Amino acid sequence: MDSWLIDVLKGIGVFFIHPLLYFFLFLTLVMGYNRVKKERGFFHVRIFDSISETKLMLTAGLFVGLIVSLLTVGVGFVIPVGGVVLIGAITLLLGLTFRLRFLSPAYVLGLAILLSMVLPQWKTGNTFVDLLISELTLIHPTTYSGLLAILFIVEGVLIIKDGSRLSSPRLETSKRGRMIGAHASNLLWLLPVFVLLPGAPVSSIFPWWPLLSFGQQSFALCLLPFGIGFFQKTRGSLPREAVRFTGKRVIALGMFIAILAVTTYWLPVMSIAVALLAIIGRELLTIQQRVQDDDYTYFSRRDQGLVILGIIPKSPAEKMALQVGELITKVNGKQVKSVEEFYYALQKNGAFVKLEVVDHNGELRLVQRALYDGEHHELGMLFVSDEKLAVQEQVV
């Protein structure tokens, strides 16, 4: 029992020295810095702090990673060191594009399946590299296909659960030249996943690696960092609704891929279909979302009032339970249609504010709150103002 515990702890230790862990940290820090820079450029204020993406990455995928580990180890998916290196290399190359959506399991594992069929036919002349490449022939097609299907479904679950948590408002120009609002979700989830590696090849390359024995076979248990990236820009609907709809589509496609993955146990050649369906299908989902989103503009100036484009966390607006996408029609009894009218009406009563708000269901409600020193200028709401086809974003 003690030896098992020591082996597991050593396997976990690999996670903390894996280069991808620190690469993922680097990516989220860069994404957070760029997001804050854009937010300040649009609104002269940041919405979320620059490490919000990093904090979400380090916490949101832990439990999901445990569930995936139980599935991969329980089913008996075995990935040789060569396969682990290949997945890591693909992840690194796709991550260097700084487009997190390419870190979807569809692209990473889809490419891994296809390359595992091609690379063994080539020799590099380097003994160590050729050894790793030769190990790719040891991977059963069901292992890669099954792992792809599991992580594909997990991607959909994470999108539904967290995809809109750090949705960042931004400003764009419509096809008619008017300024409109949009939301962008750009996230990366870290999944610590236990995988089994074949013992003999591992011990030949890394003699110090602890092995677990099951009957006549030995395996190395290793905790690896898997990353799942996501990006979606929404301007035609509420970001939460749009992101959840995408998540449901991803899960549906993942279910179909899982069915195909089962067939690879009897028909290994079907793994090609699994890889191509994952890559092409995920790309088509992205294209379809963009096309449908272009049909309508949700965050634009309206005659009925002001649409809330964004709300700063911990601001009075958040404490008043106002939500992105709601329509403010009156402030302190005065009808407002522009940021300037909103600001003017707000100044009429410096100690108290009463808002008439139309919620997402089209129902009118009253929201009121006492204002304290310094708060009447910064309720924490962001709007779009497009007079003379120019944008004057203000935090009010």
UniProtKB/TrEMBL annotation:
Q: Name one Pfam family in it.
A: PDZ_6
Kindly indicate whether the keyword Transmembrane helix belongs to this entry.
yes
Fetch the InterPro entries from UniProt: PDZ (IPR001478), PDZ_6 (IPR041489), PDZ_sf (IPR036034)
Membrane-crossing residue ranges in chain numbering: 12-33, 54-71, 77-98, 105-122, 142-160, 180-202, 208-231, 252-280
| PDZ domain location | 305-361
Which keywords annotate this record? Membrane, Transmembrane, Transmembrane helix
| Residues spanning the signal sequence | none
Extract the PROSITE patterns matched here. PDZ (PS50106)
Query: Could you identify this protein by its name?
Result: PDZ domain-containing protein
Give the species.
Bacillus mesophilus
